[in-house]
Structures are given as C-alpha cells and as structure tokens.
C-alpha cells in the first residue's frame, strides 16, 4: 500500500483519498449492473413519457425462443414485478413499434447511471477499463457478450438497448474491448469465437450509407426519420421548451454561416426540415450530443468524414490484424494490413492540416476541412496513426485545450455540452494515452494530475463521480453552461468511474516503479 502518491510539488493525493474513490467506484459496479433479475429496473425509462400504472414494454428478438426467454425472466422476478412489464416480440420493421421500450439482453451489463439506465455503445469501452482494473473480468466479458448479442439480434451495437435507438450505433470500440479481455485471459478459443462479430461490426461502418465513396472515408449516418422520441419527451428547459424549440429560436435570431441554413430550417414555415432531424439523429450516433463541431447543433454532420470515427476504424483494422496474428491467420492479417495502410493515407490526405498542426473533420460536400479545434485531434496519437512529426505538431497545440481541470473538449463556447468550458473523461483518456504513446509523459502526468484533483475534490464535496465537468472552474455544477440538449449532470457515472480507475491504477504503478 502506498502511503502517499506525490504527483507534483503542489498536487498530492493521500492514500485515504485514493482508497475512498476506488472503493466508491468498485461499489458502483454493483449499483450500475443490470441482468435479468433487474429487468423491471432496466425497463423503466425516465427519458420517455409513461402513463402511471401501465406496463413497461420489454422487446425480445424474434430470433430468440420467446417463450423460453419469457419463462427465464419469470423465474428471477416476483409475480408483482413481472406484472409491471409486458414481454413483446420485436416487430420485423421498426415502423411497426407502437410503444417504445427496453430491448432484451440475456446477460450482465453495466449502465452509465442517472437518466441513462441502459447499455450504451461507446460508454462500455470506458466502463470496461475500470472493470478490468478492479478484477471484474467476468463482468467485462459479459459486457462484450451483450454488445455481440446486439450485433446478432438487433443488427449492430446500438446507441443503447431501447427500441428508439435501433436506428443508430455509436463510436466503435468493440475490437479494443475484445483485445483487452484477451490480454487478461489468454483465452484463444474465446477470441476465435468473437472474431466474426468484430468483423461484422467493422463492415457496418465501411459500406454505404456510412461510407463516403468520394473520399473512401466513413461518416456517421443514423437511420430513422423525424424528431428523436427521447428528445421530445425529456430534453426540456424550465419553460417547457424542447431542444428542438430552442434550436428553432436560435435559427430565428442568428445568422448561420457554417452551413446552408435552408437545408435545415424552413424560415417561411418556422420549422426544422427532415434533413435537420436526420442530422440530429446522426449527431447522437457520434456520441457528441450536442456540439457545434459540425456547425450549430452539428446538423451538418451528415456531410463530414470525422477524425474520431475514421481513427477508430483504423484502430479496428489494427486490432483485427493483431487478432488474426494471435490466431495464426497470417493471410487474413495481410489483407487487413492493406486496409489499415490505405485508411492512414486517406486520413493524412483529407483530415491532417499541416499548417495548423491539427487533425480536422472533412466536409465532402464543400471539399474542405472545418478548422474547429477539438480534442479528437489526439485520437490519431491514441491509435498510433500519427507520424512522430505529426504527434509533435499536435502536442505543440496542447495549450489550446489545457485547463485547470485537465483538458477542454474544444476551445469554443457554444452553449452545447460537448464544447467549452466542459471536459469529458472519455476524450480526456484517449488524449492522455495518445500523449504517452508518443513519449510525452510529463505532459500526460501534468494534465492527469489536474483532472484527478478536480474529480477527487468534487467527489469529496458531493459524494459522486459525474458524467462531465466544467474544467475551467473545476466544478460538477454545469447546468448554467448548457443551453441546448439536456442541462443536467448525471451521477454514477460509468465512463468517469472507468477512466478514473484506470488513471489511478497507472499513477500508482508509476509511483511504485519510481
């Protein structure tokens, strides 16, 4: 046991402080876990209107033996609990769903917390980081198993396992999750059993409509039309205005120069267009809901090849190479090496800005990069995709993102939660790991100290780890900064728990070695 972890001359964490946070995180894995015995708890959804006394729908894939699944649910629930849900077979067409509800998953998973009471796609990677640090290997394996179940029964890894999210996925981290588990277990048969699902998920992102054939790069593209149901029901302000009402008000008042406003707003009829709602749903597939990274409210995201997604696909290609080599499939590994090499060339061609020394998203409609400085510029460092010179140039821009509480997600204040002055654990983790990969350990240590100081300080004051933080003011009270989307800050919180556990684990190991 370390009596004290000294991280700099002015920031020191006591063993008691670290133990309190780590104990809290380990306890939260139980609190945030869901399985069949928790299906009523999981079925309850604060993001939709629900008639008091009515049953909560639970949908089961038609590929399942529905009666057997229903019986297995009955066996782990009391009669009173079972009467509060209604088991239904998922219709073949999404349009046939008359009432939204939970999508059944057979095993254990971990939810983020707060209003997010379901399994989320990219949250799961950062949650898994903490599970593995805490030795919860079986829970981590089950988490991956549920994501693979979604691929096999619902078409892809979903934004979350609710019927209204059947039309969109989230940033792909599955291959890295698989390898992280394999490195813990060395289970070759398990690795072989999940390879096909990993490849299937990769191809989801690399064929139309997610593939932009002009650039050869991929982009986010949600299916479904019209307003997102959960936004209409839950993203309201004190005056009762929905997120969409506030967007329309913004369009009325301000001149938009980032994109052709006529694509997204019908001024004569004062209504958002079908293409706006397509962009809004697609923005939610990106996980960055919302930000002005792709113009106000990211409505124009449908026309962008983004840095984050294409780097993640490169990482998937590299991971699939590693998996094939582990399993002895050398010819297959060479096939994927060609894919990875080509994507790296395309990212350098379209997304790297030599003059700025940053990676920017590429608008294939206007054939131009959008020079919106965003923390995603560190993704290529995390994936090992940048050259040494590119990494050096990115690091020369670190000061644009560094803040008292770690790293800003962007240096633009837009009133959206995925912009300044906020910071988020997932993007922070990827940026710091990218710095370390290229040898910038002092910078990584410095910003990590700042982030952990803020998190520990807020934990001691509030008793919680939070979804997001104001990293300028080192605070978890962020409601005054957010004017679009939802302004709450959720407790729990899965990905913050996972990232903090991973950061503390690395800090303790580095201290022990020094």
Key words describing this protein structure:
514 residues; mainly alpha; 3-stranded parallel β-sheet; 45% helix
How would you portray this structure in words?
By secondary structure, this protein is mainly alpha-helical. 45% of the residues lie in helices and 10% in strands. It has 18 helices and 20 strands. The protein has helices spanning 15-31, 39-43, 66-75, 79-82, 123-133, 137-154, 174-185, 188-205, 229-234, 243-253, 274-285, 307-326, 330-350, 379-382, 388-396, 425-437, 441-462, 494-513, and strands at 4-6, 12-14, 33-34, 56-60, 85-89, 102-103, 109-110, 211-212, 217-218, 265-266, 271-272, 304-305, 352-353, 358-359, 361-363, 368-370, 402-403, 406-407, 422-423, 469-470. The protein has a three-stranded parallel β-sheet with strand order 5-4-6. It is globular. Mean pLDDT is 95; it is low at 1-9.
How many individual helices? Answer: 18
- Report the major sheet: 3 strands, parallel
Strand content: 5-15%
Query: Which of globular, elongated, flat, extended, rod-shaped describes the shape?
Result: globular
Report the C-alpha radius of gyration, rounded.
22 Å
* Major β-sheet strand ordering: 5-4-6
Q: State the secondary-structure class.
A: mainly alpha
Q: Which bin fits the share of residues in helices?
A: 40-55%
Termini gap: 15 Å
Number of distinct beta strands:
20
Mean pLDDT: 95
> Which parts are unreliable, with pLDDT below 50 for 5 consecutive residues or more?
1-9
